[in-house]
Structures are given as C-alpha cells and as structure tokens.
Inverse folding.
C-alpha cells in the first residue's frame, strides 16, 4: 500500500487533501459554537468600542474648545485691562460681557462663563447665578487648584434664573502679562445635561448603558441619576482593572453579567465606561450554529466529490509552475511564465503574469504616492495659515509700533514677519545661503528680545558662498537646539557661533555654543540615534520600530534625516560636546548640489 501511494503524486495528494478537508470540517462542527460565540462577542465589543471612541472624540472636542477659549480670554487685552484697573469702566464691562456672551451663544454645552476680578470691579458672567457650589470646591481643592495652570472641578450644582443645573467647570487663574501677579479667576462651566446628551444619543445598546467617570473615579454623567457623584467602586464593587487608557473587562452586577468597555480622555483624565449585557450577543449563537452546521455538511460532500475529479488535470501544470517558481527571489523582478493552455490552469498562469506586471507597476506607484502624500501633508499644513492675512496683520502691527515710537516691538515684529515669510514660502525646499542665514538671524533676534542678556550670537559666513543654493531650514533648528538645551540651562551668559565656509568640493557649516554641553552617555545616545537614522532611512517597518525609541532631540534628528534624504549619507550631522564647555554641530553640503538653481 505504501509503494502504491509513493508511485503516484495524484494518489498522495488525493488522500492528503481529503484528510485536510474532512478533518478540519469535522473539527469545525465540534467547535462551531465556541467560534460563533467568540466572533459575535468580538463584533459586539468592536462596535461598542467604536461607539465609545466616537463619543470620546466629541467630548475631547468640547474640552479642547473650552480650553482654547479660556486661553483666548486670558490673553485678551481688554480682559487684562479690566482686571488691572482699580476703577470700574462700564463701557469696557459691557463690551466684555458681550464678548463672553458671543463665545457661549452657539455652544449649548457651555452653561456659564465667569470672570471674577481680584480688585473691586464687578464680576463678568453670561448667566445670572444666585447660588453656586464652586466656591466650596475651590476651598476643598485649594492646593491642587493653585498649583496647576488649569483645574477641572468635580460635578456640582448652580442655581440660575433658568433653574437648577449640574455643571463641571474649568478654572484658570488670570495673571498680568508684565508682573505675573494674579488679576482674577476665569471659569467655564459645562452643562452636565448636554454632556449626558452625547451619551444617550450615541446609539448604544438599549439594554446597556454608558457612564462618564471623572479623574477621581466619580460618575458625572450617564446611567442612573442616583449614581451621580458616587465612586465607581461603590456602584460597581465587582468592577476592577480599568487602569489603562482603554480596554475591555467583565463584571457581574447583581445576577446579570456585563461586558465592560472603557476609553479614556487623557486631556482631563476622564473615562467613558460602557456596559453591554452578555446575553445580547449570545442570542445570535443559535442561528450562527445552524448555518455553520449546514455549511459544513455541504462543503464536506462537495469536497469529497470534487477533489478526486479536479486533482488529476491540475497536478501536472501546477508541478511545472511550482518548479518554475521555487527559486524565485521576491526582491528581484518577477519573471513571466509561458502559457501553454487555455483552461483554468492556463488562466491562472496568465493571471500570474499579469500580477507580476501589476506588482512592478504598483511598486513604482507606491513610491510616487508616498512622495505625493508627504508633499500634500506639507501643503496642507502650510495651507492652515493664510500667508497674506498673516503678513498684512504683522505689517499693521509693525506700523502701529512705529507710530507709537516703540522701535524694539517694530523690529521684533519685522523679524517675525520675515521669519514666517521664509518658512511658508510656497513650499520651496531650497534657498540661497544668504536667505538661510537671514532666517536664522531673524530667529536669533526674536529670541534675544525674549531672553535678554542670556546669550549672544555671531555669524561668520564666507561672502563667496552667500549666493550658493542649499536646503532651507537647517541652521535655525540647530541654533534653537543650542539655545534650549545648552545656553538656557546655563546660569551665566552664553555665546553661539555660526560658521559657513566654502571649500573645494563642499560647503561646511558649524553651529557652536558655550552651553552646558553633554556627558558621554547622552552624547553616545544621540550618536546612536543619528547612526540609526542613517541606516534605516526609507524602510517603513524599521522606521516604525525606530519611532518607538525615545528621541533625545527631535530637531537634530529631523535635520539629520533631511540632509540624508537630499544630499546622501555624507551630509549628515556630526556632533561633538564636552560637559560644562559646550556643543559643536557640523554638516557638509556637496558643492555641486549647492550650485544648482533654486
């Protein structure tokens, strides 16, 4: 019997394929119920998690919108003026109330905006509040509130002219821009009923429910109203393990098992927790089991009848094709296979030939698409800012400063305008050396005004290279790195030197500082990251692994990658540093590339 099978590939394959088909089908019939349960449960969890993420996105938008509006009000000059005056200005008071009302009018989730001055001026608000529970909370959490730039309160009640409301407030101190003393307190109150509206309209399973939990693990929306402001461990004592940002758990509440899905809002430390009764997806298992059993029986009969019939005329062409393909190198161009028949195997070979051609074209198309995607991302980022509006606004500020004879502000605004104009210049990647140096000088001038008497910077650029072409936005990130990581961490005044030298075959640039420098361990770490970028540039899977590593200085790595992309391996950054003395960064640009047109 063994020799009889050994002499025929068709017999061996027939037996093996029959076993390969029959055994899995019979096994599938045994475990189909478990499979159905798992698939149905996974789909229910996936659908529930998608719903939670949608609600999370809505709530995160609301939170970000409120935080952005609070920053806008803190920096608003009329607010600063009103809080800084000792005498009340009724016109300014009315104007600010109108501003607050305009901010909150179209946003149903804002219950009230209040600004409480520290001086004797009247408070500003959008809703008349006769009684508020915020003041006791501010006293209760005084340590946390005063030590943080912003603070989200627990859920509390306010009594307004429209009735009793439950709200959650964002509280920020307002400080004077010049003296940094506290001028007052700003609070944005979110209407709890509107937040709960997001949960009830999420399309969650009707027999389940969703609750919103704050950073202190207290329920602030969703579920039974009597649960509000109770600790989750008190309402669901059997629920444990919600420590991650998102995940899945199980809990037995009373006599009813629930699948628990949760997703966090890291911005404020809240969590959305959804409960799905387990019996909902278990009801579908009976139908799935029946369909699976019928499918297995039909597939088993068809497999046994067709395997023997088709295997005879499929074996020989497939063996030839297998021999042709076994030594194929997937990294090289895929060769074509000669088509000798017009049946299914011939069509398979013909499809293989078409596929090889399609793969070759797709490789080229993927490279083009990736390049276009990067370009589109850059254009989309630049399109977020209207350059003409920005330039005109900065010109107006420059003119006003000159009219007020404030020369320093005028010069700083002018430098900023030139800095932005160069950065957003129609997406151009190259510029002449003189433009790159001017851009770096504008940045240094702005920083010198922001941090007076902290550093001095000097530029030594060979006049013969000022009109040579180079990749733009290389010097400014290196100067910024020297300033932030070297000079500002030094107690005494530091110096930054920028050198540019035109040599026979290349242009050499050096950015050197007298900052704190780096120890050998940190220097080895940065050298390792630069070497890793040099080795793995352009390989998607390895680049993904690289992004998981901690990057010491994103600015240095970004400049290093751009140099490698545009000028090759010899153009990367060279970093030298001595602890307590300073850091020196050098890079080379090939001269023949620097002499091409912009």
């Amino acid at each position: 019997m063994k020799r009889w099978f050994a002499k025929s590939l068709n017999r061996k394959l027939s037996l093996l394929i029959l076993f390969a088909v029959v055994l899995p089908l019979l096994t599938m019939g045994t475990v189909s119920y478990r499979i159905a349960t798992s698939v149905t449960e996974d789909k229910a969890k996936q659908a529930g998690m998608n719903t939670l993420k949608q609600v999370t996105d809505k709530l995160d938008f609301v939170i970000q919108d409120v935080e952005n509006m609070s920053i806008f009000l803190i920096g608003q000059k009329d607010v600063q003026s009103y809080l800084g005056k000792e005498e009340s200005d009724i016109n300014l008071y009315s104007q600010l109330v109108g501003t607050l009302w305009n901010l909150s009018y179209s946003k149903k989730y804002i219950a009230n905006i209040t600004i409480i001055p520290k001086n004797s001026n009247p408070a500003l608000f959008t809703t008349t509040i006769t009684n508020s529970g915020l003041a006791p909370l501010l006293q209760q959490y005084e340590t946390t509130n005063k030590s943080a730039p912003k603070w989200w309160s627990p859920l509390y009640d306010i009594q307004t002219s429209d009735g009793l409301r439950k709200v959650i407030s964002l509280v920020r101190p307002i400080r004077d821009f010049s003296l940094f003393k506290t001028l007052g307190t700003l609070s944005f109150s979110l209407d709890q009923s509107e937040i709960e509206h997001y949960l009830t309209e999420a399309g969650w399973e009707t027999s389940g429910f969703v609750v919103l939990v704050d950073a202190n693990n207290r329920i602030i929306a969703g579920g039974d109203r009597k649960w509000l402001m109770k600790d989750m461990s008190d309402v669901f004592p059997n629920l444990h393990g919600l420590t991650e940002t998102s995940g899945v758990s199980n809990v037995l509440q009373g006599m009813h098992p629930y699948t628990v899905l949760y997703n966090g809002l890291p911005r404020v430390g809240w969590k959305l927790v959804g409960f799905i009764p387990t019996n909902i997806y278990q009801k579908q298992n009976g139908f799935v089991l029946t369909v699976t059993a019928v499918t297995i029986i039909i597939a088993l009969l068809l497999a046994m009848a067709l395997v023997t019939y088709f295997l005879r005329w499929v074996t020989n062409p497939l063996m030839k094709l297998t021999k042709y393909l076994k030594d194929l190198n997937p990294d090289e161009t895929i060769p074509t296979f000669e088509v000798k028949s017009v049946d299914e195997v011939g069509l398979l070979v013909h499809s293989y030939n078409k596929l090889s051609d399609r793969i070759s074209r797709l490789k080229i198309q993927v490279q083009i698409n990736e390049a276009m995607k990067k370009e589109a991302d850059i254009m989309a980022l630049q399109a977020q800012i209207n350059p003409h509006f920005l330039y005109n606004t900065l010109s107006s500020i420059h003119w006003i400063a000159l009219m007020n004879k404030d020369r320093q502000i005028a010069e700083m605004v002018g430098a900023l305008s030139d800095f932005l104009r160069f950065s957003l210049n129609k997406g151009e990647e190259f510029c002449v050396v003189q433009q790159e140096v001017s851009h770096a000088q504008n940045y240094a001038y702005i920083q010198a005004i922001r941090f007076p008497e902290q550093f001095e910077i000097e530029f030594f650029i060979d006049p013969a290279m000022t009109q040579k072409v180079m990749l733009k936005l290389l010097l400014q990130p290196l100067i910024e790195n020297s300033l932030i990581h070297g000079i500002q961490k030094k107690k005494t005044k530091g110096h930054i030197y920028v050198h540019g030298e035109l040599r026979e075959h290349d242009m050499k640039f050096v950015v050197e500082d007298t900052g704190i420098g780096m120890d050998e361990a940190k220097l080895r770490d940065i050298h390792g990251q630069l070497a890793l970028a040099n080795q793995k540039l352009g390989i998607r899977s390895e680049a993904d692994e690289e992004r998981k590593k901690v990057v010491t200085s994103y600015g240095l790595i970004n400049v290093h990658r751009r140099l490698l992309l545009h000028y090759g391996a010899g153009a990367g950054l060279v970093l030298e540093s001595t602890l307590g003395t300073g850091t020196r960064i050098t890079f080379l640009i090939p001269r023949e590339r620097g002499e091409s047109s912009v």
